[in-house]
Amino acid sequence: QLQLVESGGGLVQPGGSLRLSCAASGFTLDYYAIGWFRQAPGKEREGVSCISSSGGTTNYADSVKGRFIISRDNAKNTVYLQMNRLKPEDTAVYYCAATKNSGCSGYATVSLYHSWGQGTQVTVSS
Asked: Which residues have CB under 8 Å from 105's CB, separation 6+?
């Protein structure tokens, strides 16, 4: 059974950091680009970042560029999202997902992804 599991969410003060992990089971992530999305209450799911299967290409939404860093460790079958200088507007449920492709072209398009995790809550508040 193909499964993605996110972890690392929590409550953090503005300006703080969190590192999210996305671990796969039942399949290897090696061949797939992986995206991170987030969804705040009452808002649509938003593409945050993507990393290609090789790790050589990364994409970021303008809202997180310069603050978030996506990386992957294929040996551990895991993708990470390092989130720095967090803001209250970063509060959302964060999801990872595996695309059907090796690259990140059009990464914010939900229909490109075939497997999703259950999400992890990130709350940025003082």
From this structure: none
